[in-house]
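Lab notebook, bench 4. Still working through the backlog of constructs that have no structural model yet. Next entry is a single chain of 158 residues. Request: give me the C-alpha cells for it.
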Amino acid sequence: MGFFNNAKLEPTPELAPLTKERIKATLEASSWSYHVDSDGDIGSGWDHGVIWFFTYGNQAEILQVRGIWDGKLSPDDLPQALDVVNEWNCDRLFPKVYARINDEGQLRVISEHTLDYEHGLTDEQLNLHVNTGIATSCQLWERLNEAFPEAAAAAAAE
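Model written out:
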C-alpha cells in the first residue's frame, strides 16, 4: 500500500491515569485559582457561575466538569428555562444542560461535560477536557444571562 510507505509513525503519548492531582496541575498551568472542599472535590469560581471537577467510577476514571450558573430562578420559570435548555441541547454537542429544583426550592441550571478515561489520558487530553468544560459552560451562562436578566443582575449583586 503505497499510501503508508513513507509515513513516519510518531510514538504514542503515555496515557496516565486520571487523578485529582493532574486536574489541579492543569488548572495551575493556566494560572486558574481553585479550592478543594471537605470531600476533596475541586471547585473554581468564574464570572456568572462555579465549575466543579468531579471524578467518578471504581478507579476515579470518569471526569465530569460541572458548571452551576449563579442565577437563581423561581420554579415558575421552569417552562422558559426548559426552552433555553432544550435549545442549547439541540444546537450544541456539549455540555449537557439541565434545569432542576434544588432543596431550597430554587430552579438551577447545570451543565455537565463527562468523559470516561478508563485507559488513561494524556496531559493534552486533560487540558482539552477541562478547557472545553469551562469555555462551554461560560458560553451557556452568557445565554442564560440574556434570557434571565433579572436573575443575572441579582446574582451579580450578591
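Notes after review: The chain has a mean pLDDT of 95. Strands lie at 35-36, 42-46, 49-56, 62-69, 96-101, 107-116. Flag for follow-up if needed.
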